[in-house]
Design goal:
InterPro entries: DUF202, IM_YidH-like. The protein is built from six helices and no strands. It is mostly helical and 169 residues long. Helix 3 runs antiparallel to helix 5 and helix 5 packs antiparallel against helix 6.
C-alpha cells in the first residue's frame, strides 16, 4: 500500500492565506533649519515605472553637460593666457604677452569661455526641467531639430568671429 506523494498532495485542498502588509519602523526625521530647507533640492519620488533609472539618466546627462562646460572654459582660459613651456636655452624666463602674439587669439578664448558658461546654464536648466517632469510623471521627448538649429547658428557665429579675427592681422 504505497501511496504516491504527488497524488496525495493533489487531492488535498490548501487554504490560501492573504499576504500581510508589514510596515517599516518609524523613521526619525531630522529637524532642519530654514537655510537647510531652502538649499535642499532633493526630491522623494516613488520608484514605479523605472523612475530610478530615469533619475540616474538625468543626473548622468547633467554631469555630461558639466564636463563639457568645464572643458570649454578651461580651453578658453588656456587660449587667453597662452600657456608656454619654458625654453631651456633661454637663461631668463619670459612670459608671453598679447603684444608678442597679437590679439587674434583673444576673441576665440572669450568665445570658448562664453560657450562653456552657456553649456553650464543649459545643462542646469535641462536637469531641473527633467527633474520637475519626473515628479509629475510626465515624459518629454525632444524633437531634435531645435538642437540642430542652435548648433548651426553657434557654428556660424564662431566661424564668423574666427574669420574676422584672422583678417584683423
Amino acid at each position: 500500500m504505497s501511496t504516491n506523494h504527488a497524488e496525495a498532495s493533489s487531492s488535498k485542498v490548501t487554504a490560501t492565506r492573504k499576504p500581510s502588509l508589514e510596515f517599516a519602523e518609524k523613521v526619525q526625521i531630522h529637524k532642519a533649519s530654514r537655510l537647510e530647507n531652502y538649499l535642499d533640492y532633493s526630491i522623494l519620488v516613488s520608484n514605479n515605472i523605472s523612475m530610478a533609472r530615469d533619475q540616474l539618466a538625468n543626473e548622468r546627462n547633467w554631469l555630461t553637460w558639466f564636463r563639457l562646460s568645464c572643458t570649454l572654459i578651461i580651453l578658453g582660459f588656456s587660449i587667453l593666457v597662452q600657456f608656454r613651456l619654458p625654453d631651456p636655452s633661454d637663461p631668463t624666463p619670459r612670459v608671453a604677452t598679447m603684444a608678442d602674439t597679437g590679439n587674434s587669439n583673444r576673441p576665440v578664448g572669450f568665445i570658448f569661455c562664453a560657450i562653456g558658461f552657456l553649456c553650464f546654464i543649459v545643462g542646469l536648466g535641462k536637469y531641473f526641467k527633467n527633474q520637475r517632469l519626473l515628479v509629475k510623471q510626465a515624459t518629454y521627448v525632444e524633437a531634435g531639430w531645435g538642437s540642430y538649429v542652435v548648433v548651426g547658428i553657434l557654428f556660424l557665429f564662431v566661424c564668423t568671429v574666427m574669420i574676422l579675427a584672422s583678417s584683423a592681422d
